[in-house]
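Sample entry was shown:
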Amino acid sequence: MASRAALLTLLLSAFAAASAVAQLDEKFYSQSCPSVEDVVRKEMVRALSAAPSLAGPLLRMHFHDCFVRGCDGSVLLDSTANNTAEKDAKPNLTLRGFSFIERVKAAVEKACPDTVSCADLLALMARDAVWLSKGPFWAVPLGRRDGRVSISNETKQLPPPMGNFTKLTQLFAAKNLDTKDLVVLSAGHTIGTSHCFSFSDRLYNFTGLDNARDIDPTLDLAYMARLRGKCPSLDDNTTLVEMDPGSFKTFDLGYFANVAKRRGLFHSDGALLTDPFTRAYVLRHATGNYKEEFFADFAASMLKMGAVDVLTGSQGEIRKKCNVVN
């Protein structure tokens, strides 16, 4: 009986999710705000022309939003006197782009007041961040509503950079994302930078022995030496390192080539080589011969992630400002 009940619960959850996703529509704002994508694109082009390194953080922002409470803009909410919000939790302290998102929101509000959600803006900005970095383009289904709740402790649902394959697949599965989505979306690390403290445990004191030889044995030694040159200690909280050295401003297949050489920056990147399916995917795309195939896969996984636990219809609200509830 217990297994039948669990199956019924799972089926009901899947049905609810499918119903919510069905309410998203690429033409959702065709009448109420037909200019929304043009307004967002104009701001994105202006920003990335001046600071192309902002593309990675904007893609990451959408990812961090969708993994906690679904794609509802909750990552953008400020903490209050009575509550610590997601953005102030440890995994999100390195997120960048909040002020720029508010600028885009203000521009959209000017064009179409009280119409477009912050959650939809994050989805559009992530897509444009990838496309303007020479990555794939995809039509974004719209109609998400903004959540009113943001709780720091719930960021435990975010896949950690030090996660092993089992942990990563569990966290992805909880969002109805499979192993292919894991390896495909991990390639978002082809653009952007990371702080040393997100991976420095691989370089120093990996198992707690506290000596110079205590390093992650799965990391290429030459790459490890270069990283140590940039990150001199476990206490470095400011230095930024390119996640895809040499092409961190371009969305390309360089990520897979690096991971295949055991030069993935994070433990989670290296973990992709520990599973037969993800390893095969990495090695296939490390050749650089299947760009269109990977681009199509990435677009598909982004669409899937962008529909996780969305609020639609009368749920949630349309925030006037992304950092505070109405």
Notes: The radius of gyration is 20 Å. The longest helix spans residues 2-22.
